[in-house]
Amino acid sequence: MTAIGQRITNQASLEHAVLALRARDLPCIEAMFAAAGPPSLRKREAGLNGLIRIIISQQVSTASANAIYQRYCERFESACASDLSRADDSDLRACGLSSPKIRTLRHLASALENGELDLDALAAGDSDFVRAQLTAVKGIGPWTADVYLLFCLGHPDVWPAGDLALQEGVRLALNLRERPNAARLEKISKRWQPWRAVAARLIWAYYATQRNASAAGKITGKPAKSSRPAKPGTSVKGAARNSPARGSKRGPKKSVAKRAAK
Q1: CA–CA separation, 43 vs 45, rounded Å?
Q2: Cα separation of 129 and 121, whole Å?
Q3: What pLDDT is recorded for position 248?
Q4: Which domain holds residue 238?
Q5: 166 with 96, same domain?
Q6: In the listed set 152, 182, 197, which residue is the last one of a domain according to the structure?
Q7: 4 domain-assigned
Q8: What is the mean pLDDT of the chain?
Q9: Are 73 and 90 contained in the same domain?
């Protein structure tokens, strides 16, 4: 089965994709795999709930995102667009939502009620269609659309190039002097097509192990001075956090990383 016909929606499909990715860029992928272990599936619910959770999780820690989402679910049990549009701002703020996120949720509810956005139709669409539909909603940007494609719909070749943790993870994995910006990261990612969503999962897991190792004083190499540590899953405008994967704390050897970066 090719990446085009496969969605990563369960453990079996993830394991198949991991094997395909390891065969595509063996030195770099194997080094990260040895350090971080196999990436986790982290499947999220598609539809309104999944999208709301992604919006909530931007720019906050995992613990805060979980707490806010829990309060949101307690207040709005049905989680439908009409309930969201009728909700008072005070109720949404009481959940812990900021004013920009409340505005985004209002725009989302309006688009759903007016028929401008059909979340069910996104499930069968290709990645370009899904991005176009989601980013047409005011307040929803490319990062949110990509994360929805990756974790909710299971697209295999999604690459959220604006994610700071992904940028920093690639810098560490390929032993680059500076953190690559979104444009450069997009170019670097070509080597992992058509399994970039799996590469992203692995790089996030690898980066988390390096952050943990750095905190313990055991990092395998010095970060570039111009790079400030980012938390896993952090976009330029905010992002959901990613849980670390278990595994060894050793990073790629420099000789392997340099060969992979060429």
Answers
A1: 7
A2: 10
A3: 36
A4: 11-41+159-261
A5: no
A6: 152
A7: no
A8: 84
A9: yes
Specify the pLDDT at position 80: 87
Q: Over 90: is that where the pLDDT of 112 sits? A: yes
Instruction: Tell me the two tokens of residue 218.
Output: 């055991």
| Same domain flag for 168 and 219 | yes
Q: What is the number of structural domains in the chain? A: 2
Among residues of the chain, what percentage have pLDDT more than 90?
68
Roughly what angle, to the nearest 10 degrees, separates helices 164-173 and 26-36? Answer: 110
163 phi and psi angles, rounded to 5 deg: -80, 120
pLDDT, position 3: 54
Q: Using the structure block, give the residue that is written with the tokens 């001075």.
A: 225
Is 142 in the same domain as 195?
no
- 126 and 79: one domain? yes
Phi then psi dihedrals of residue 180, to 5 deg = -70, 140
Helices (H), the chain: 11-24, 26-36, 48-57, 62-75, 81-86, 89-94, 99-113, 119-122, 127-135, 142-147, 164-173, 182-188, 196-215, 254-261
User: Which of 156, 157, 185, 203 lies closest to 32 in space, CA to CA?
Assistant: 203
Domain edge (last residue) among 99, 130, 152? 152
The whole-number average pLDDT for the span 212-240 is 52
- Which tokens go with 166? 């992904």
Enter the tokens of residue 234: 């952090």
Give 61's pLDDT tier (boundaries 50, 70, 90).
confident
Global pTM reads: 0.81
Instruction: Count the residues in the chain.
Output: 262
pLDDT at 25: 79
Domain contains 3: no
- Domain membership of residue 79 (yes or no) is yes
| Token reading at 141 | 């940007």
